[in-house]
Structure formats: structure tokens, C-alpha cells
Amino acid sequence: MKYRGHLYATLAAFLLASVIILGKLILNEGIDPIVIVFFRALIAFVIMGCFLLVYDRSLLIIKARDLCFFLFYGLIVAIKYASYIYALKWTSGTITVVLLYTYPALVVILSAFIFKEKVTLNKISALVLTFLGLLLVIQIYNTSFVKYNAIGICWGLSAGLTAAIYIVMSKILTNKYNSLAVVFYGFGIGALFLFLKDPVAIMTVSLSRYSFAGILALAIFPTLLGYSLIILSYKYIEPSRTGIICTTEPVMGAIMAKIFLDEQMEIVQYFGGLMIIMGIIVMEINNVRRSYAKIKGVRGNNPEKGE
Asked: How many whole angstroms separate alpha carbon 36 and alpha carbon 39?
């Protein structure tokens, strides 16, 4: 049955990578990035809300003392989504998705401070690979490129940073609440913050059928279906294996950008992207080893279960 888990994780990575194409196509219609991410979050919020009401509405109950934490969580969701689309607006899709994937290294740093997780040699190696790969992707040696893409690079790094904070906060919240409920409130509160950012633009926007279809696809495929497939893959394979498979997202994104957007990157930049992916794999392999060690430990303590 493991092939199902691998299939679901691969499809999830493909759908998540499609944000590059969908985002660029909608931006080319002249739609404001805030409008795009607002409707993306709102549509996802409504669809998931309907599902939870039918599936188990008790999951929607949250404690009053956690409200402020949920509000901050929603704010991070809003910034994360907006940062990604703004990065797509100001730089290439390939660079955007590679910069986003600096988030696993940032999660290591945040977890060391927040959860007091041990910083191992594997994690240090991963951080070094990610940092060096980042420098190559943004062409730190080419001042003209950096100046031309400075705004997009900053937004891409913002997407990576907020994605890291999002994951750390999700880890805290999912210890208390169902993961679907956490994501549901993230969408809803995120949409609220995005609306408050520019209510006039959102209320006066005139979306063509093409633009609305693009935003609807953005909300359903990478946002809802991509996330659902990741969760579904956990039933068949370890989360760490899913993480390794999902590192193919930047590769798929680069291929899509090449085919559909005719984007180009220098060989050095591709090498930098490969270094970032290698850094992620180094961390995830360590997670796989720990998972197997725990499984062996359980089997050792319960020999009858290992037969």
C-alpha cells in the first residue's frame, strides 16, 4: 500500500508547484495580488467550512484563551500567501519557489529557540547547503541581477520565513486541535486580514471569467487538494518520507515555468536550487532514521507485534 502514499505525495508536490503557473496567469490579467490571495483564502475557507460542518462540526470549537494565537496564525497565513504572489509579480516563478524552499532550514532555527530542539551535525550541514544555495540562486555575485530582482527576492524570502513560522505555529496548534480545523481558521482569519489590508480594491474589483476560474483553481487544487493529499499520504507512509517526496516541488515548478512560461535560469542558479533541495533531503533523511529507530524500539519492547 506504500505506493499509494508515494503517489499522493508526488501529486501533492505537483499541485503545490502549479501555484507558479496559476499565479503568473492571473497576475498577467492585471489583478492586484491582495485581491488574488484574498479570494484564494476565502474560497478555501468556505469549501473547508462546508466539509467540516458535514464531517464533524465539533472540530470547529476552539477555546477562548487560544483566540489570540489563532489571530496571529491567520495573520501569518495572510502574509505567507501575499508574499508568494508578490514574489511571482516581481521575479520569476522558478526563483520564487526556490526561495520559498528555504523554509525547512528556517524551521530548524526557529525550533531550536522555541522547542529547544537539538541542532545536530545533519541540521548544520543542511543549513550550510541551504544558505550557500540561496546565495547562488539570487546570484549574489551579480549586483545588477540582485538590484533588478531585489523586490522579488525580498518577497520570496518573506514567503520562506512566514512558511517556517506557519509550520512551527501549526505544530503547536495541532497538538490541541484537529489539523483540518486549524487550517480552516487559518484561511478564514487570513482572509479577514487581507480584506482589511485593502477593502476598496477587493470590493470594487471586476473579475473576468478567466480570472475567476484561475483564482478558483488556485484555491481548490494547490490549496485544498494539495494539502489534503499530503495528509492522506500519512496513512500509508511516514511524514518524513512525504517531506522528502515534496522536495520535488521546486523541480516540478522549474519544469513548469520552463514549459509554460519560457523562464530561464543560469546553470549556477540551478545548482544553487539543487543545493537547497539537498539540504532539505539531509534533514528529512535524519527524520526517517529516527522514525525507524522508534519503530524498532517499539518492536523490541513488544516482540509479538513485530512478527
From this structure: 6
Give the gyration radius of the chain's Cα atoms: 20
Q: What letter does residue 237 receive in the DSSP assignment?
A: S
Burial class (CB in 10 A: 0-12, 13-18, 19+), 54: exposed
Q: Could you give the 3-state DSSP secondary structure of residue 174?
A: coil
Cβ-based neighbour number of residue 60 at 10 Å: 15
DSSP string, 256-277: HHHHHS-----HHHHHHHHHHH
What integer pLDDT is reported at residue 303 of this predicted model?
47
> What is the pLDDT at residue 307?
38
In our burial notation (b when 16+ CB lie closer than 10 A, e otherwise), range 234-253 reads eebbbbbbbbbbbbbbbbbb
Residues with Cβ within 8 Å of 116's Cβ and at least 6 positions away in sequence, in order, are: none
Q: What is the pLDDT of residues 97-133, one digit of tens each?
A: 888 988 888 888 888 888 777 777 877 887 888 888 8
